[in-house]
Amino acid sequence: MGSRALIADLTELGGAGLVVTELGLDPPPLAATVGAVQLGVHRGGPVPGGALEPFDILLSADPAAPGPWVGVHPSRLDAVIAELKAAAARQPVAAAACAQVLRMSLDLPFDQALAAESLAYSMLLASEGFRSWRTDNPPRHRADDAGPRVTVEVGRAIAIRLNRPAARNAFDARMRDELFEALSFAVDHPDALPVTLSGEGPAFSAGGDLDEFGRAADPGQAHLIRTLRAPARLAHQLGDRLTVQVHGACVGAGVELPAAAGRIAARPGAMFRLPEVSMGLIPGAGGTVTIPRRIGRRRAAYMAISGVDIDLATALGWGLVDEVAV
User: Helices 231-238 and 110-125 sit at what angle, rounded to 10 degrees?
Assistant: First the structure.
């Protein structure tokens, strides 16, 4: 069966794309559509409350709409709706899977939510959406850059730094493993010292190393490795002991991991983006777990499915970051 026929079948089953409800005009859904992204739209008047549970994303023409709403300027509302429809249409399976995982994430303990994310991520690695993206974006074969991916200094605090500036601190397997070891050291430190995490170079992290995406020969084994060596789990364990200092581009893992920390301080100019759905995947470094615990699942779904850049002012207003560093 070709991809168009498959998507047609999914659409007939209500399992692909974006379902838009104009609040105040359309009857609200009684429950979330199992396999589609449910968008609620508010165009005017008081921002609705009440029966909003079925919606995955809530979009308001009031730029100051409070959470869980995403507020946009009225002149931009229809364009944003069209952009969300197009994003879901390009990767309908990943968009639906992302919405499904986010619906359950806040109801699960942190570690179980990480496992649910990894299971969905591993499944999507075998999907046609990801395979098509990988075909269109073949991995490059580059010489491995020498030197440690992560450095650790211990004084009155434990200072951990991502150390791959030439690649904008892109996370590869080696960086993940070295960061896991560094965070394990911090978790187990007998003096329970405060911990900082920062990044060398022009960006905190440009996210996962795209050249490694899909390389795992065994997705099941990759799932186990992903859950057993998840830096986000240790960042969450450190809690208020951990402050992440971010700057520049914070993409994919570069925002998913910091969101697990007790505190995030961002330098002026920092920006945040979740690009994985556009690749046929979902956030896989803990983002469906950490980000909704900071900003709610509707704003997290908006970030993930739209893939848009979130500027520092918006991130600060939503609680994705805690302070602007000077």
Answer: 160
φ and ψ at residue 114, rounded to 5 degrees:
-60, -40
Cβ count within 10 A of residue 240: 9
Identity of residue 311: D
- What is this structure's pTM? 0.93
Instruction: Spell out the residues 6+ positions from residue 246 whose beta carbon is closer than 8 angstroms to its own.
Output: 198, 199, 204, 254, 255, 258, 264, 265, 266, 267, 270, 321
- Determine how β-strand 310-311 pairs with β-strand 271-273: antiparallel
Q: What span, in angstroms and rounded, lies between the C-alpha atoms of 199 and 189? A: 22
pLDDT at 257: 98
Q: 122: closest CA among 102, 103, 91, 94?
A: 94
Q: Mean pLDDT of all residues in the chain?
A: 92
Q: Which of 234, 218, 268 is nearest to 150 (CA)?
A: 234
Helix (H) or strand (E) holding 303: helix 297-306
> Is residue 50's pLDDT more than 60?
yes
Q: Give residues with Cβ within 8 angstroms of 23, minimum separation 6.
A: 40, 41, 42, 43, 48
CA dihedral 285, 291, 292, 295 (to 10 degrees): -170
In contact, 60 and 47? CB cutoff 8 Å: yes
Q: Which residues contact 278 (CB under 8 A, 6 or more apart)?
A: 87, 90, 91, 133, 307
* Inter-axis angle of helices 128-136 and 110-125, nearest 10: 70
